[in-house]
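step=predict obj=COMD2 protein n=150
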Amino acid sequence: KLNVGVDTVQHGVEGLTYLLTESSKLMISETDFQDSIHVLGFSDELNKLLLQLYLDNRKEIRSILSELAPKLPSYQSLEWRLDVQLASRSLRQQIKPAVTIKLHLHQNEDQTAQVLQTDPSTLLHLIQQLEQALGEMKTNHCRRIVRNMK
């Protein structure tokens, strides 16, 4: 009926879907949406229809996107133990430390436990990397990104 190829229709639908989902994720205003679609070179009537489509469906799109987001487990508690091997049959003077961590997680109504074991130097490196990541979250650039994600 449209006298166009299947690929053209498919790309049009995918483009429209992308436009609506990204606009809904960012909760952009009417003027920002109009500025975004004005660049595409559509007629004023089509731009008004796209704006109305966006305004009518953005809350529903956001709710669907939030349902599709993966539900990650959350921290509940942590147990740890330090084991040190002081000697063995072949080596009488050795110190071999190991840190065992039991991480209790909560997801939906399920509770799981993950057991991890590492040496202290690897654990110190992991702590430094996590502290660096937390420090980077305090930068203005990351704050802007997080604000736009909400």
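step=describe
The mean pLDDT is 88.
step=end
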